[in-house]
Specification:
CATH class: Mainly Beta
Helix content: 10-25%
Largest sheet: 6 strands, antiparallel
Shape: globular
Number of strands: 9
Number of domains: 1
Order of helices and strands: HEHEHEEEEEEEHHH
CATH architecture: Sandwich
Distance between the termini: 38 Å
Number of helices: 6
Strand order of the largest sheet: 1-7-4-9-3-2
CATH topology: Jelly Rolls
């Protein structure tokens, strides 16, 4: 993505809270990911938020190398870094398959549990990778444009929304303060997406990456992915271990200098 296109997407996220980036996942890779999701899926979820006709798989980074390229995607990650910064972290990586008959997910904001007065600087930036077409009828994510500049919604309240319709292979990127929710699936097809969620480096991750991913797996990650799952230090301080760099736990060569050393 060239600098002008990246800035256009960042401006759209700043103004309305979201943007859609087309043609990110080429068809063969998309089919491989669809197959992998199908192999992992278990039972339907069983609560109002996750749904009753939806299947989800969490902590995908422990389920095969095919997932490792998603957090560090060269098109999407620079946009996320533009919303947050280079010190951002993987918050959660999961699949969401909305089956026929699913009802609308309650409208919510992804940072609603963070006790900060709104509006505030972006602390969460989430993405939805469309492995199938997303349509108004099959459960495309419902969005309330501009709501990232407001307070929190009443959970499950009735708000005017627009459907984030997009072709398979596209990626929806949004500010975590944006009010949204999965749509109802009134078709006979399954809507499948990958929720690749990020947070600022000073915010606790939704999924505990350091405990959820065995070190033996994390040691095989490329350097940037190691940083994104938490083997990193934010602004020269946050995340250190006894003044050392957490990457050393993976036998990685790291610069352990902290901000204190520069004073």
């Amino acid at each position: 993505m060239d600098a002008a296109t990246r800035q256009r997407h960042l401006d759209e996220i700043s103004e309305v809270g979201y943007t859609v980036i087309p043609d990110v996942i080429e068809p063969r890779r998309r089919q491989e990911l669809l197959t992998a999701v199908g192999d992992l899926e278990g039972d339907f979820c069983s609560n109002d938020f996750e749904g009753f006709a939806t299947k989800r798989v969490y902590n995908l980074l422990v389920h095969g190398e095919q997932w490792e390229a998603i957090p560090v995607d060269p098109v999407i990650l620079p946009v996320v870094e533009g919303v947050l910064d280079h010190g951002c972290l993987v918050s959660s990586l999961s699949s969401i398959a909305i089956h026929p008959g699913e009802t609308p997910q309650p409208i919510h904001a992804d940072d609603i549990l963070i006790p900060l007065e709104k509006p505030h600087i972006p602390i969460v930036c989430n993405t939805m990778w469309a492995l199938t077409d997303f349509t108004d009828a099959n459960g495309a994510t419902r969005l309330v444009p501009g709501s990232h500049l407001e307070g929190n919604p009443d959970y499950g309240g009735d708000y005017p929304t627009v459907a984030a319709e997009m072709e398979a292979g596209s990626v929806l990127v949004w500010n975590g303060s944006l009010w949204h929710g999965g749509g109802a699936n009134t078709t006979d097809e399954i809507r499948v997406g990958i929720a690749m969620n990020y947070c600022a480096g000073f915010i606790r991750q939704q999924e505990n990456q350091q405990l959820g991913i065995p070190r033996s797996i994390a040691a095989g990650f490329e350097p940037r992915l190691r940083e994104l799952v938490g083997y990193s230090i934010y602004n020269g301080l946050i995340g250190h271990i006894d003044k050392g760099h957490p990457g050393a736990l993976l036998d990685a060569a790291t610069d352990s200098a902290l901000v204190w050393d520069a004073t």
